[in-house]
Amino acid sequence: MTVSYEGQVAIVSGAGRGLGRSYAMEIAKLGGKVVVNDLGGSVTGEASDARPAEEVVAEIKAAGGEAVANFDSVSSYEGGYNMIKQAMDTWGRLDTIVCNAGILRDRAIHNMSEDEWDQVLAVHLKGCYTLVRHAWPVFRQQSYGRVVFATSGSGLWGNFGQANYAAAKMGMVGFMNTLKLEGEKYNINVHCLGPAAATRMTENLMPQERLDQMSPDHVAPVVAFLGSSSCTESGLVIEAAGGHYNRAQMVKGPGVDFDTNDFKSVDWVEENWGKITSLEGAQAMWGMGQTREEHYAAKG
Ligand SMILES: NC(=O)c1ccc[n+]([C@@H]2O[C@H](COP(=O)([O-])OP(=O)(O)OC[C@H]3O[C@@H](n4cnc5c(N)ncnc54)[C@H](O)[C@@H]3O)[C@@H](O)[C@H]2O)c1
To answer: Angle 134-139-143 (CA atoms, 0-180°, nearest 5)?
Structure first.
């Protein structure tokens, strides 16, 4: 089946530049109408500017697509509401939200201020909640919805100096894990996408030869697939970076059982540490207590 957004509406947050711009352009190219949201501030989240979102809307229109600009902050509850309302008022439906807006306030934890922690959590993690919370009733009502969160290898694997950002990005994975359960009955699928691409966020972190291999346009097709009706799975974490796509997954080891009438000492824990921490035969879980394999087998 050919992946298409024909007749569908998507919101991409932080779509005024970088990765979000590529996602919006890709979805529009596939026939989707797009709310291009961007506050337009600096990489650390200061100030605002309408131009980035307006320019992407103009680009989409010049290419024959349909788009409207939105300048709300994703960290505001009302901002999330406004975006959903704008999609509904303009086109009467909403199919996909891509929660991509982001800022950086990097600092080693012993120097990280409360404000640096709060601002990053507000844009990245609350910025997913504000959109999901207001899109969810629409998705439930129409028994269809697709959600993609922009996670990061920083949260999935750790990155020095990004405790706030990593916590927010991994928080999205926990958020997704519960939303996939709450959305299942309503055909609402939720995924996390961890990109790596040459944008203003990464321009000083890597040599130019490497950045040249990392166009955001290489990430956009995966986001467009995850956010489309063609992707019928839910709860996946996919990484996409310069010429490479892969899945990432939290797994549960088989562990070790003991009789609960027989309390174990800390020495027993030490003796059995190898078995407790072993990942041999580890499995991906669908929810608490059920493996992903069991879940999909039961669904047929
Ligand atoms: N570039 C990478 O390699 C990389 C790696 C991992 C994750 N990410 C994630 O991908 C997303 C996009 O990053 P990018 O590299 O394109 O960065 P970018 O700075 O080029 O784009 C982010 C956009 O989000 C907008 N934004 C920031 N705060 C906002 C708010 N409160 N409301 C609305 N818009 C807001 C900015 O104005 C900006 O246009 C981010 O969530 C980032 O954390 C990027």
So the answer is: 160
